[in-house]
Amino acid sequence: MKRTLHAAGALLAAGGLLATSACGGSSGQESDGKTTVTVMTWESNATNKLIDQALAGFQDPDITVKRIDTPNGNYSDKLSALTQAKKLPDLFWCGNDTEQQYTGQGLLTDWSSKLSGSGDFGTGSFDSTAMKNWKTADGRIGGVPSLMNTYGVWYDIDAFKAAGIPVPAAGWTWDQMYEAAAKLHAKGAKYGLVADAMTALDAPFSLSLYSQSAGGAPFTDDVHHPTKVTVDATFTEGVSKLVAGIKSGAVAPPGYDISNQQSLFSAGEIPMLWSGQWLAAGFLTDKPKIKYGFAPLPQADEPATLYDAVGICTPSYTKNADATFKVLKYLDSTVWTKVLPDSPVAVPAYTGAQDSYFNALDKAGQTTVASTVRTDLKASSTIGVRFTTQWASQAGDLITAYWPDILQGKKPLSDLQTMADKINEVIKSNS
Amino acid sequence: MTAPPRPQRRKLGSDARAAYVFLAPALIGFTVFVVYPLIRSAYFALTQYNGLSVPKFVGFDNFRRMFTTDPSFWPSVRATLLLVVLYVPLSLAIGLALAVFCNQRMRGVSLLRTLCYLPVVLPVVATITLWKFVFNPQVGLANQVLTWLHLPTSEWLSGSDSAMPSIVIVMLWSVGSTMIIFLAALQAVPTELYEAARLDGAGPRTVFFRITLPLISPIMVLQVVLQMVTALQAFNQPKILSPDGMGGPGFSTRVLMLSIYTNGFPSLGRVAQLGYASAQVWVLFLVIVVLIAATARFSSIWTYSDHVS
Fold this sequence. Notes:
Chain A is α/β, with parallel strands linked by helices. Chain A is about 45% helix and about 15% strand. Chain A is built from 18 helices and 11 strands.
């Protein structure tokens, strides 16, 4: 009997161990009566340190803010696991696509009523494009946009001088970009232009800028609620120019390893790099060996650019929505004004905090970055960087099946239409 | 004729109870972490389920989609089979060659065996990440060595044709475990057979193909099965080494395990397709079962046996 009791005790202990494997999650009320609001970011250690310092300035006797440490490299895995375990923190960094999908499934707190007023933190206090894209079709706002990514082309000034080409500037054309890439390649660069955005999974959205700018149809009519994708003559023309660039060696082919593209650009190995404004923050700490600039994306006739705002989301099961909203407001309106001067990673969607970003760039002498970001924010013709739909991965697989082979000449340009037809079938079957 | 002594029966019963009690944690663990997920995944395979909403029963739609409309499924099967075809024979050949070499009587053989086995005990993810740097086409050691040797460089993991062979090279880095099993098998071959063969004038080649290989053939079957399962379940290498983490370029390294993961735990912003991923799990399971059953069934053709039927 005694032995059986011991064994039963061991079993209970084992069961207890199994049951206590949960971690993380929103905190709610503490024993001292304070509400703890948890925050999870995807930022680097350096930026997180700045965020922690800024959050220390949050003064509310009833609220404690606790940031959960998570590796930024595995953020998506962590987010998936926490979502399925229903253990998301009160505030977590999220993309526009995550916000749209989670809100559609009722997983996020809808802040539309709190943002509806005309106070200093209403929908009108944000960049209009960003806020518009964060609203779902039925008017819910499952998260608040925080920073806006803009895209452009980083260039090595000395490499352009050596090749006898004028440096890129607002209004430059796609033809000028490919010509420059060809000359830089002829001058000794392995590839004149590295542009993962035009060769990887979301590439048709980048190439859509060509057709939009040339008066053609965008690749899709809406990334949130698309009814169709279109591959018209201007889109095909844009792709054919890219195919020629890849064939000649002027443009890096699909599969090019981008893991160290920033350091290669800094070292003068890549003379032209299609990327985002966020590289500027890294260039302040790890200074490139080259003189560099940042130009808006090329155009055919009219300017066109990509929009992509990230933000902060809150799960629907947050225990204290009012306290969470207070911290959210502080994060979006005040924290960035303290963080961005030291790490100008992106322009805030909250317009009241935008000066801190531009002032930091001006102070650091990054005038081309500031002017390009300003130009991008004013662009009237825009498209999202990817589908935000539930079936986005199915469309992504279709793009992967066709796009790289078309760019490398293994499949004909006419297969662009086949790809579009198949994506349209996916849209139809999911609508 | 007497009945079995009753006290002994009582003792056995008590031992059995104790055994069950001590086995209980393992049985509970097996039920919770193996049997239950198995049943759930079989159910999810017949549903549309993203891990968040209520599963919706769709019958065999997931399987239909897999075999007919999913553009990534057949390339995944192709990538998986290519990995098996490249990795299994190479790992057996290199493992056996190393074992034969390390089975010699020579100075420093223990150190040699340790060095061969060392990659197996190193942290897998760290080792794979290091290989990623080695294979970097711009600044990696592999292309630098080729340049020094005046040989043409390769795109390695960035090239759709060279990506899978590069992954096989990384997997072969851990061939030490294969070597150790072969080494144990080699050392179990009776030495008198070798002595008799030498007396009969057999050369090393004849001794290897007529004595060594037949006698270790049962171990060879085991190794084929083990290496096949390793290749079919490969995940870490393609996940970490592919430039996009999704089995690129294109679908060139998206093996079935990675395809399952990509659908079940997609990148940031994408919604999980756990129902579809579960269906893929069952297809992979069936592929493994069929391949192993076939290997076991036909192994008697090339396995040495001293039993006379």
